[in-house]
């Protein structure tokens, strides 16, 4: 999910505050719970519907945040006070990215024709990590349409080691190659 700059700034502010107060683990759990709740169609339809009065939204969210850490509950209340409830839509992703960034890590996705073993994923993560200078956490997604090889999406980049990708690269090289001029 692509995170807009406004959401990223709010997530950074919450991260910094949670880190300063020594509550990063608790706030992280709260943010994950918010992301799950906001990800459900019913909750999203209610929260982001302009026809629903703000007071009604704030009341329902207050019930959700009643078991949260004080920082998280106050943060969510502030979002509603400032009419920034749309930030909740991308908060989970933005906050997780910020936590990973603070650890020098990044998440990625590996597409393959078959499920990869944990050893294969670890080897690929180490190889990519050395190139990127970060710890890489990979998730495997099976794409039966791939004939062989893998496609990796990490740090905003596509690294295509698939058969189709290699053939396309070879095709581009052949089309761009200069042909010798006959005498």
Characterization of the model:
This protein is 58% helix and 14% strand. It is of the alpha+beta class and 183 residues long. The protein has two domains: 5-101, Peroxidase, domain 1, CATH 1.10.520; 105-176, Glutaredoxin (3-Layer(aba) Sandwich), CATH 3.40.30. The chain has a four-stranded mixed sheet with strand order 2-1-3-4, sandwiched between helices. The model has no long low-confidence stretch (mean pLDDT 90).
Give the DSSP E fraction (strand runs of 2 or more residues).
5-15%
Distance between the termini: 57 Å
Secondary-structure class: alpha+beta
Biggest β-sheet strands, sense, barrel: 4 strands, mixed
Rg value? 22 Å
Poorly predicted regions: none
The H/E string reads HHHHHHEHEEEH
Q: How many β-strand stretches? A: 4
CATH class wording of the largest domain: Mainly Alpha
Q: What's the helical proportion of residues? A: 55-70%
Q: Give the overall average pLDDT.
A: 90
Taken from the alpha-carbon principal axes, the silhouette is elongated
Quote the CATH topology of the largest domain: Peroxidase, domain 1
The CATH level-2 architecture of the largest domain is identified as: Orthogonal Bundle
Please identify which CATH superfamily of the largest domain we are dealing with. N-terminal domain of the delta subunit of the F1F0-ATP synthase
Order of adjacent strands in the largest pleated sheet: 2-1-3-4
Count of individual domains = 2
């Amino acid at each position: 999910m692509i995170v807009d700059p406004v959401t990223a700034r709010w997530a950074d502010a919450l991260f910094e505050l949670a880190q300063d107060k020594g509550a990063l683990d608790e706030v992280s759990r709260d943010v994950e719970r918010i992301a799950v709740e906001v990800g459900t169609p019913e909750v999203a339809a209610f929260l982001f519907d302009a026809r629903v009065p703000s007071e009604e939204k704030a009341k329902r969210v207050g019930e959700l945040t009643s078991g949260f850490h004080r920082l998280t509950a106050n943060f969510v209340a502030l979002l509603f006070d400032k009419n920034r409830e749309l930030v909740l839509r991308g908060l989970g992703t933005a906050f997780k990215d910020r936590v990973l960034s603070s650890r020098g890590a990044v998440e990625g996705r590996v597409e393959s024709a078959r499920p990869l073993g944990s050893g294969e994923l670890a080897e690929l993560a180490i190889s990519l990590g050395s190139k990127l200078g970060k710890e890489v956490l990979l998730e495997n997604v099976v794409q039966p349409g791939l004939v062989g090889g893998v496609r990796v999406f990490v740090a905003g980049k596509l690294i295509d080691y698939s058969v189709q990708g290699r053939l396309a690269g070879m095709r581009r090289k052949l089309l761009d190659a200069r042909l010798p001029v006959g005498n």
